[in-house]
Design goal:
about 325 residues, alpha/beta, TIM Barrel, eight-stranded parallel beta sheet, three-stranded antiparallel beta sheet, 11 helices, 11 strands, globular
């Protein structure tokens, strides 16, 4: 595995809980880290920026050396006018992992590297993967077909294979991963981590409306719609939430990508992620709303059962 050495021995299963816009809060991140996976949140979930600093203080206080590390997601798109102020706070509090999205910047990577932080950049194609590494990213998050939120269309088999032809650093895979078996499959393909988001929306600690959580429990992969209408970037959304907002999921117009808006809405009166709820295709595995620790415990059981089923011995999660 290409797992960062600083994370060795601190994970119960090789999983990163993906940063969920609006939804990921310290309660969820702390529960994830204490259960043995890397928890994360978007910096923009904390508003105003003073709250972001409060969250970092809390995470650094409540998480110890035996807990899994946490990560902060930074939107590097030009529409984020808070980026550099958030970077300064990440440096001040030495955030262990940074997940950059919607752009790659050398100055951001250098700032995180100044204290030994790890930068993972999410990408939807091999082309963008190369650009991210060229600009100094330590690792990659391959956002393949079926992932929740802003997702790509490439098969995970193809995307991981193409990236691994030239890149041997840390690599996570996102796309319909909601079971321990799927995490093991990620490793079999060549990834180091499974990147799980949608399943954690349906946890008690998640800052999501109860209707959202219940909709995930009640939905399956055929209930996911791929559209760029709501933010200007293509993403996967729950069909019932689109219907609830008064729109026809099968007749959505195509949006102008220049109208991207990630912080407060999109290109309709119904706003992502407030009214139109993002979700990936793996939600058929989500049967009930659980505490995050119970979800991670299920993933761990499934992971080791899958290893046993194909004749693999139990394994500790460690760095090479």
């Amino acid at each position: 595995m290409s797992m960062p050495a600083a994370f060795a021995g601190r994970l119960s299963i090789p999983v990163i809980g993906s940063p969920l816009f609006i939804i990921s809060v310290p309660e969820l991140v702390i529960a994830q880290c204490k259960a043995g996976i890397i928890g994360s949140f978007p910096s923009l979930n904390a508003r105003p920026i003073a709250q972001f600093e409060e969250w970092l203080q809390r995470l650094n206080t409540e998480l110890g050396p035996n807990d899994a590390p946490y990560a902060v997601n930074l939107i590097v798109h030009r529409s984020n006018d808070r980026l550099m102020a958030d970077v300064e706070l990440c440096v001040k509090y030495k955030v262990p992992m940074i997940i950059t999205s919607l752009g790659a910047r050398e100055d951001v990577n250098e700032a995180i590297h100044s204290y030994g932080g790890v930068v993972m950049h999410d990408i939807i194609s091999n082309k963008f993967a190369r650009k991210a590494v060229e600009k100094g990213a330590d690792g990659l998050i391959a956002v393949a077909a079926g992932a929740g939120g802003h997702a790509g269309t490439t098969s995970p088999f193809a995307l991981i294979q193409e990236i691994r032809e030239w890149f041997d650093g840390p690599l996570a895979l996102s796309g319909s991963i909601a079971t321990g078996e799927a995490v093991l499959a990620c490793e079999a393909m060549g990834a180091d981590f499974g990147y799980i988001g949608s399943a954690f929306i349906a946890t008690t600690e998640a800052r999501a409306a109860q209707d959202y959580k219940d909709m995930i429990v009640d939905s399956v992969s055929s209930d996911i719609v791929y559209s760029n209408l709501f933010t200007g970037v293509h993403g996967n959304y729950l069909r019932p939430s689109i219907v609830k907002a008064g729109m026809d999921p099968d007749a959505l117009p195509v949006s102008d990508p220049s109208a991207m808006n990630f912080g407060s809405g999109g290109n309709t009166e119904a706003k992502a992620w407030k009214d139109i709820w993002g979700c990936g295709q793996g939600i058929g595995a989500v049967k009930e709303v659980l505490p995050a620790a119970e979800l991670v415990a299920r993933l761990v059981r499934e992971y080791h059962a899958a290893r046993s089923r194909i004749g693999l011995a139990p394994v500790a999660i460690a760095a090479e």
